[in-house]
Structure formats: structure tokens, C-alpha cells
Amino acid sequence: MKLEEWQFAVQVEILVDFVSLTRNNCDLTRVLRYQDLSGYFHMLDGPTYENLVKHFWVRAKIYDKYAAMAEEDHFVLLDPNLKGKSRAEMGLKEFTRTEIRSCIMGIPVTITEEVIGRACRRMLKDHFSGI
């Protein structure tokens, strides 16, 4: 499904209302401090650049192992001599992990599990990387 930027609105709001939770006997501040997540939730309450968000997501594509295989198949269709060759021999980067790929104002942007982990100030577990 192809979307245009004008077709959707970015929902900007406080993601978690900690004041209301505390008022209703559900104080999560200790838990957040223990898990060192206070900074992450504070970051989520920061500014949202709606035009950049829209621009990013209408152009976003998931690049996973199936997209990598389709890319190889495309190169083989263009040049049958590449059949059976490695990605490196085809002139392609090795597939290492699933990525969200997009472009903002002509600049390629890639989001990976590692990028999300760094934004949350969390280290990735080895068994999750490369999924």
C-alpha cells in the first residue's frame, strides 16, 4: 500500500501519564529508576518533528532476509553469470540484520535493532542480534 504524506497524521501525546498512574496508586518511578529507563521516557516526551516523521515513514521499506534474497535474484536476472556467486562477488553488502530503510531529504536513514537499543540506552543481548 502506497501512502502519501498528507494521508496520515502523526499522533503526538504523552505516551505514559506517570502523574495519573501515581495518583491511582501505581507509582512506577522506582521501577523506572531501577531499570535506568527514566531518561528514555523523558526523551519520548521531547519534541516531535511531524514532517520528518511523515517523510521517513512514507518511504520506509523493511530490508530482511527475504528482501536480501530478492535483491540477489534481481541481480542474477540482470546478469545470469552471477548465479551461484556470493553477495560480495555480486557487489552487494553482506546481509547481517533486518533494517528499516528510508530516506529523508535525500539522506539515507537506516534503523536497526541496535539503533533502537542505543536510543533506549540498552545493550542488545547476543541472541537477539541478527534477527
What does this entry look like structurally?
- The chain has 131 residues and is α+β, with helices and mostly antiparallel strands.
- It has two domains: 17-46, no CATH class; 50-131, no CATH class.
- The protein has seven helices and three strands.
- The protein has helices at residues 18-23, 29-34, 38-44, 50-58, 65-78, 87-90, 113-119, and strands spanning 61-63, 99-104, 107-112.
- Strands 1-2-3 form a three-stranded antiparallel beta sheet.
- The longest helix is centred in the middle third of the chain and has 14 residues, at 65-78.
- The radius of gyration is 20 Å and the shape is elongated.
- Residues 127-131 have low confidence and may be disordered.
Q: Ranges with pLDDT <50 over ≥5 residues? A: 127-131
Helix content: 40-55%
Average pLDDT confidence is 84
Q: What is the approximate shape? A: elongated
Strand content: 5-15%
Q: How would you briefly describe this protein structure?
A:
The protein is an alpha+beta fold and 131 residues long. The protein has helices spanning 18-23, 29-34, 38-44, 50-58, 65-78, 87-90, 113-119, and strands spanning 61-63, 99-104, 107-112. A three-stranded antiparallel beta sheet has the order 1-2-3.
Properties at a glance:
alpha+beta, disordered C terminus, 2 domains, three-stranded antiparallel beta sheet, elongated, single chain, 7 helices, 131 residues
